[in-house]
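**Backbone description:**
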Amino acid sequence: MKLKLWLRLVGVLQIAGSGIGIALLVLATGSDDSLAASIAFGVLFVAALVAGIGLWRSVPHRQALVASGLFWLAQVPHLATTSFVYRLWTGPACEIFVKGSGESLNRGIFYAFGFSFDFDFAVRPERPFVFGINLFAIAVLLLLWRASRAAKPAIAHSEVSNDDRSHVPRA
């Protein structure tokens, strides 16, 4: 497949995943969740939605690739301890992980298609230690990095308005 087609597929996954994320955050308004975390992830999902639309364009600008990269970078780690948990993935996920502690340490592979978001600072002694890495998100990051090497930066309006007067003849 051509790079452009892969970027469009990532754009679709991003648009769908961030749309679901925004909808779930709106539905969870008023719950016990942290307002600061909800706002932070709301901003992430809105930026990912805009960047996903940017990836759908025929020639995505570097800004869309960078914003998309941040969205997928947020989906790489999975960390859980007795006092903290962080996990986010939208669309496909393929995670390798270690779970437990001491002699009861387990390794495994988790794969799914859907949406998962967990962010919590509550102390839960029963929660096992988990460290995981989403391989699908890493693959998307590599694709975005490859595309960013060939992408053109967007031109700001102010850069064009004053600097391109050198070709205008003076009276």
In short: The CA atoms of residues 28 and 38 lie 9 Å apart. Residues 157-167 have pLDDT under 50 and may be disordered. The first helix runs from residue 3 to 27. The chain has five helices and four strands.
